[in-house]
What we know:
globular
Amino acid sequence: MLSKGTVEDNRKFFGRANHARCAITMGIGTILASRRVLMLATGAPKANAVANAIEGPITASVTASALQLHPDATAILDEEARRN
């Protein structure tokens, strides 16, 4: 469960009715050790992050760019998150 302070701090991103109450924190090493990786992104605000992760150089500045090293990674994007 997320602490009350964390929920309050993140309420601005999710609104009152729909906010996360729990989360999983996982390091990139653990993610890369998995058999399969699925990245799901929706919305135009995610387009730059997705492009940097998938098309940019592998860098510590964009942690998700390490997914380029995974042998079985899939990205599922809506039109807004997909940059042309």
